[in-house]
Amino acid sequence: MSNAENKPVKKMMLILSKATLENVYACFILANGARMEGIESEIFFTFFGLEAIQKEKLKHLHVATVGNPAMHMPTMLGGLPGMEALATKMMKSEMEKLDIPPVDEFLEMLTASGSKLWGCKLAMDMFKVKESDLIDDIDGVLTVGDFYERAQGDGTHLLFI
User: What is d(CA 129, CA 141) in angstroms, rounded to the nearest whole number?
Assistant: First the structure.
């Protein structure tokens, strides 16, 4: 092994582009896990991922049942009325059993642990989302360039979810 391969992870830069319940929790669990290991974590919410930090939308996220191969059901079945709500209810129930907090509480935990949360300026402009639409704990709104500047340095990893 070369010396470069032995360098520790110092910062996780997560990019969340979809606000399906499964993507949001995957991102939050990775960010929280990093903090628990003493690794910095930052999340950049872009495109539909912005819904995870919008006050009016974050409590209404759903599991994607259509076009999701992990659901192991035909697309047509996933599109039936009520299927998305049923899958969402089932996933929330299972997460509750594991003591995984709801999205709003998880966001509070992340900020309390030192995770940084950033809205994407381009996506906000495109979807006409105002900073006042976002949760109070957001650290700010960045351009992609600003986000990449924050990712500089040895031991930084970027992960797109």
Answer: 11
Cα–Cα dist 139/1, whole Å = 38
User: Left if phi > 0, otherwise alpha if psi is -120 to 50, otherwise beta: which for 82?
Assistant: left
Of the chain, the end-to-end C-alpha distance in Å amounts to: 29
CATH 3.40.1260.10 fits 11-160, yes or no: yes
The answer to whether the pTM exceeds 0.70 is yes
**Alpha-carbon distances, residue 67 vs 63, 120, 129 (angstroms):** 11, 26, 27
The structural domains of the chain, with segments of one domain joined by +, span 11-160
Question: Which of these, 156, 141, 136, 113, lies nearest to 14 by C-alpha position?
Answer: 156
Asked whether 11 and 153 are in contact (CB, 8 A), the reply is yes
* Residue 69 pLDDT exceeds 90: no
pLDDT at residue 3 greater than cutoff 60: no
Strands (E), the chain: 11-16, 40-45, 116-120, 140-142, 156-160
Assign residue 38 a region (left: φ > 0; alpha: ψ between -120 and 50; beta: otherwise). left
